[in-house]
Design brief:
The chain is an alpha+beta fold and about 180 residues long. It has 2 domains: about 110 residues, Roll (Chitinase A, domain 3), CATH 3.10.50.40; about 50 residues, Beta Barrel (Thrombin, subunit H). The protein has 3 helices and 9 strands, in the order E-E-H-E-H-E-E-E-E-E-H-E.
């Protein structure tokens, strides 16, 4: 059996987990498959993966500002209390879904009689993070996988170029889980 290495024309599967600046887990373990060089994975991560084979482990330091954005006061919102379940409490987390169906996690900071304050900044905004992973699979990419990756990239670029939707935040709230 040939040991393929990650590079142009390959499909790889990476198991990974993110850690915050204090080296505490910042995500659940996840598995992602991608075609090398198609923008599906952060460039810093792909640079560490290039030339690697199944079983290899990587560790990548990621800039919080560049990767997860800068913290913004505009991302802290006061929402009408009636938009939340009766038992909402500080520390709860909810998922916000934008018009494109992308999910953001909102953290409840404060609950008043008539309002709830949420923070929609990425939890790792302004923090350096570390991604640790292991390659589970490396093989030649199929033409279908390459085409799907190209289409996904085109959709992402179109989304980034579009004006943000004018949608009320309250209509987008969906309970995720308690934190």
């Amino acid at each position: 059996m040939t040991n393929f290495q990650v590079g142009p024309g390959t499909f790889y599967v990476l198991s990974y987990r993110a850690f915050d600046a204090e080296d505490e887990p910042a995500s659940e373990p996840e598995v992602i498959g991608a075609v090398f060089g198609t923008g599906q994975i952060l460039p810093e991560v792909e640079a560490k993966l290039e030339g690697r084979a199944v079983g290899d482990r990587i560790e990548v330091r990621l800039s919080g500002t560049r990767t997860f954005g800068a913290r913004s006061a505009d991302s802290i919102l006061e929402i009408d209390r009636s938009e939340f379940p009766p038992d909402v409490a500080p520390g709860d987390r909810f998922e916000l879904e934008n018009a494109a169906g992308d999910l953001l996690v909102a953290h409840v900071l404060d609950v008043g009689a008539d309002f709830v304050v949420i923070d929609t900044n990425h939890p790792l905004a302004d923090q350096e993070a570390t991604l640790r992973g292991e390659l589970l699979e490396v093989r030649p990419a199929s033409s279908e996988e390459v085409r799907a990756a190209e289409l996904a990239l085109e959709e992402d670029l179109a989304f980034l170029a579009a004006d943000p939707p004018d949608v009320g935040v309250g209509a987008l709230l969906r309970p995720a889980h308690r934190g």
